[in-house]
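tool=predict chain=A
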Amino acid sequence: MSSDFDLIVIGGGTGGNGVARAAAAAGWKVASVDCLPFGGTCALRGCDPKKMLIAVTEGVEMAHAMAGKGLNAKVGVNWADMIAFKRTFTDNMPPRIESGLEKAGITVLHGSARFTGPDTVEVDGKPYASRHFHIATGARPMTLNIPGEDHLITSTDFLDLPDLPARVAFVGGGFIAMEFSHIARRAGAAEVTVLEMMDRPLGNFDPDMVAMLVEATDELGIDLRTSTKVLEVSKSGDEYVVSVETPDGAQTITCDLVVHATGRVPNIDDLNLEAAGIERTRRGITVSPYMRTTNPQVFAAGDCADSGLNLTPVSAYEARIAAKNLLAGKDEHAVDYPPIPSAVFTLPPVATVGLSEAQAREQGLDFDVHSQTTEGWYSSMRVGAKHSGFKTLVEKGTGKVLGVHLIGPGAEEQINLFAMAMASGLTADQIKARIFAYPSYASDIGSMV
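tool=predict ok
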């Protein structure tokens, strides 16, 4: 069968569009397919719209933090106006992305793709053949397998709510639950409950930084319940009843809305990967360090792949590696992940890069721990921040920065500077020797090592 295309990219988000553009720029005949509006999770249903809502709630937080310090303000959130503000960005993204792809000479296909062979797919039943494929379908909310699961809304639904109910429960204690519960509470929800099965939220973040966030979350008025397993969700009239198991026995929570926030899994179940000879694991599509799948003509990147951290910048990085090897026709470029920073955009934000204390000890490293609460530092005091601090791990002898963990205003930007310093091999003493604009959040980092 002659090929309709040189490359079909499945997924119109961060992990796919760059590959499509690179191949088109090289003169390849390229198609890009997605069953959802083009733009992907981050731009349309995750990172970007979420931070637009957070921007509004930052005004609420600042007004409260500066009360009695010279600022006289009564603030509140108009939910409908805030969602409309978010849509000024998200509504324009799909047509902009599609238009850009088409101007690059890429055929845009709308529909669900399904492999029918090693070099063929169907898109809503219509067959296409291609010399190569690149899969970047991202992730979806994991299946909970509990009675009444259909009563839960997803984070995508939450970002499009026409109004905010008075009582909201979040199932899970990760990024989505913590960030969205903070949004809901500051936006005016009277009762916000977070139900986390483990003994603390944000298990991949430093426990001491998380402990400060838990204190801030409690002060905000969010009912954070750990070691709490959700068993069932039922509906009674206009209310929902969440049945949970706790160390103290069975309990119920009555609310107006239940949000699925337990995490995400690779969005690959409907691709019929077996037909193309593409293997998978629980974490996603099996890929080599060159982002090539077990079908050598197919690549994959981002959250759908069994590869790096499920973060948008990681997806973009992996896509660049895939594109280089795809166009080279051989495996020339392997992934070599730099220190990857990550942030939870609660207020205060929590951020991390590098090794945790536990990981450093498991590796047998000899290091010093520099840790301090910093609510008395100028940068925190200036904005009335009550919960801020840091922990840095510095290897003895070499001065190498092994890991950094932060909470407080500016943490999401400070962590990027630490990531750059670590990737550049700067020692703690070299970081201290840098001159930063002062006073700024960046000027604090020299005092953290």
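The first strand starts at residue 5 and ends at 10. The longest helix spans residues 47-65.
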